[in-house]
Amino acid sequence: MNAKTRDNLDSQATQTALESATSPVTPSKPGKDWKDPKRYLWLMGPALPGIGLAALAGYAVAPKKLRSLAWTGPALVHGIIPALDRAIGEDKSNPPESAVKTLEQDKYYDRIVKAFIPTQYAMTFMGAWLASRKNTPLSDKIGITLTVGAINGVGINTAHELGHKSNKLNKLMAMAALAPTGYTHFVVEHNFGHHKRVATPEDPASSRMGESFWKFLPRTVVGGIKSAVKIEKARLARKGKGFWTLDNELLQGWAMSAGFFGATTLICGPRAVPFLAAQAAYGASLLETVNYVEHYGLLRQKDSKGKYERTQPEHSWNSNHIVTNLFLYQLQRHSDHHAHPQRSFQALRHFEHAPQLPGGYASMLLPAYLPSWWYEMMDKRVIDHYEGDLSKINWDPDRKEELMNKYADYAAAVSAEAKARKGSSSEEAA
What is each CA distance from 11 to 179, 313, 374, in whole angstroms? Predict the structure, then answer.
């Protein structure tokens, strides 16, 4: 079953529940008269590789005076964007349903996403050239590598948006955005693996409560590649073809990465190889950090037949911090994305009752790297979300017993409070 078919089935089964869960700030002019207030702010997305390219060009012109520009990427991802998120805050407004069709058909938004890719490639070539020069100090090479890796990591989000579109051109452009990180298998695994198994123990891209990022990372990387190979083998088998065929989308993507790395090395020389490998690893790790954040501890429950329930808004962590959403094409409105994978970024909605992160994705990166900080920030939020019912949590099996004992008293207090609240609401309704 492809993403489009799943989307149609899910929308029929969940539309009523989804609509009742929204808490939109209704625009003053609904329908065809409504204008997207963030229409031109979405240009921040494709502007990001432009910022990286400008920073590297400035460094190339004055490498001694402007050395700090080599570190533009980490400064943006781990400092400037989180600070702006805190300063500017959240935006919980939703487009009116009557305007969604017009939004979806507006080619402007599609062009914005695709505009990221040419500048992404120019920035990566510039970084490879600078990092391969003999006179570039090692510390600057590290900064340049992290800058390019950070922006190519955001490029994976560009691929995410394009990869959910049905036509072949968008899929090829998604692979092009992924080629600099060597993560082209993401197009296959994300659409037909992650979306099918999200918020279950079987999904390598859904993190478990009590599982550190460093334990999650090898599980999701290896599991994702294995899943992509299995999915593509099955697809090709249905067409009567083996794995080694030109129709294999994994081989197509890996060939694009090999071609990009080869061409860059040919132009910049063998000193570019360590740079290319390191920036790819860092960029891919940013994707997996976001994966770690998006579904931590959340679990789809099974019905009486042992089948998982359909994906609902409650199975993804969300954030409405506006700056990160502008840079990431509203990836943080992840509940609506999983309920309706074909819905374009500009039309994604906020759901009031979906679990909310304490900050934007950018501000969650550093806590994710430090397990004690992460657990302190998120574990009780998971328990709160399930109103103290520890049986509903997606646990790290190695730590389940330990953590259930640790949080037993807290969970009991949360459960009692939830029951009292529901009892009070029932009395008021009566």
Answer: 33, 12, 33
Q: What is the mean pLDDT of residues 91-117?
A: 94
Alpha helix (H) ranges present in 64-203?
Answer: 72-75, 81-88, 97-105, 107-131, 138-163, 168-178, 186-189, 195-197
269, exposed or middle or buried, with CB in 10 Å at 0-12, 13-18, 19+? middle
At residue 351, the 3 state secondary structure works out as: strand
Angle at 366 between CA 195 and CA 410, to 5 degrees: 75
Q: What is the dihedral of CA 50, 55, 61, 66, to 10 degrees?
A: 170
pLDDT for res 426:
67
Q: Given a cut of 60, is residue 179 above it in pLDDT?
A: yes
The tens digit of pLDDT for each residue in 28-82 reads 355 567 899 999 999 999 999 999 999 999 999 999 999 999 999 999 999 999 9
- Residue 278 amino acid letter: A
Specify the DSSP class assigned to residue 301.
P
